Amino acid sequence: MATPTPAPSLPAMGDPFHLSLLRTPRGRFRVSLPPGGEFLLGTPEPLSRPGAAGQSFCIPITEMVGVQLGGSGSPPTVEGNQFTVFFVQREKRQRWSLGSLEFTVAPGSGLAPRWVDALQRSIQLHGVTRPRKLLVFVNPVGGRCRAGEIYRDRVAGLFALAGIQTEVIETQRPHEARELILQQDLGDLDGLVCVGGDGTFNELMHALISRTQRKAGIPEDNPAATLLPPRLRIGIIPAGSTDCICFATVGTNDPVTSALHIIIGDSQPLDVCSVHHHERLLRYAVSLVGYGFYGDVVSDSERHRWMGPMRYDFSGFKAVLCNRSYEGTVEFLTAGGTEANPRDQTRCRAGCLVCSESSHQLLGGSEEEKLPQQESTGAAVSEWQREQGRFLAINLTCMSSACPKSPDGLSPSAHLADGTADLILVRECSALGFLRHLSRHMDHRDQFDLPFVSVHRVRALRFTPKQLEGSEERERPGCRGWKGLLRGLCWGEQPLSSWSCDGETLPHADISVRVHGQLIHLFARGIEQKMGLV
After folding, report:
1. 45, 116, 210, 520: most buried by Cβ count inside 10 Å?
2. Catalytic residue among 153, 185, 198, 446
3. What percent of the chain has pLDDT over 70?
4. Confidence of residue 493 (pLDDT cuts 50, 70, 90)
């Protein structure tokens, strides 16, 4: 008498494989769930029909989205001879899609529900970081005003397939998400999700960090305070104009890709800058804190919101023509260490060794949060430095700040979670020279290889502007001879620029900035080095 097939409850290490001969659209396969249940393996059966795909498959349980009885195009059933496995499938350019594979068992064998049960148990065992309940904020007016449609049509079904409970809030007014996060009980949640642009993400990030510090009694207005990382992770479903943070942490602004990263429970730490004016917290930032060119672009674009996303191109064109520079003093605390080189041509990718080393230091309590005046780090010294003069742009970024128009970003070698930021100083130059610098952000050339540009890896920054009250207007290089309309666009000398902090204009020019290593975590894993299809 044949030995009956044992019910495939999740095997312990050392137990026999769960093995069945199953039919798939690719042909017949010997399908197994090895001890430990880490992979679903399939080996083509030699008796497969002629012409059937004979390639073996290996689906990691950690990248399995869900499993259900029935076919992929039909609703789940209680009985039947089919079950379907849904999994992450890698496409080109860092995109992920939902892959599926249908399995058909022998009629009357009862194997389909047993396989579903075994795989669901494996997912539960190896998916301890997966979210079970999420609070989702949809910004209906952010970016291209398609956030609601994107969530309903492309994301909600994936969350349901993965068995994730969601509470969805479509915001109706500014700061609504912030108020809810600060006041609502979040104890039963595993994460927050924003559907919108970078501005929507920033609102959630600010609220979550502030909530955590308030509950811990940590004064955010104290620039020297050591901040406590929030427990909850944040997921970003991109629906904005630039989606810079998605590009830097996932490699694409595809909503399905981001949803799949959330589902499988990826976690990517992220450095955050706190920006203070004296003893008052102004904002937190993760992408760009910019003075001069970018500050002028953002502040001017606010006067042209009727133009939509085109207002940034218009204001950028004006800023290049005007070629304004601003006088002041920049003080910065260098990161130190022989590896701290923003021009080393390395790239921060998934499993980055530089960021991993920073994680070990944080766990060991050795993060240099107290900002010493001078500290030895290997063969180099971390110290305060000062530069004075006129600057066209002062840019500080904790990440590459890549986007579709600038695929390498402001600082291509910046790291997501090493406890530092890259400071880019662009000194006064001609409009043509500055245009050369900007154009190199779009064609993969070294934007720092210019005599008026310098870049430093830093842990903190202070900026003090020089007031130009009562000074006479003087010609900017490249402005001489302009008349009529062009001259009218650049209406005189401005003593101060504005700081742009992740797209928001700050009310003060004299600020201090400090990098807090790995202060928040996203549902992401960094940009992957290599891709392959299952």
Report:
1. 520
2. 198
3. 83
4. low
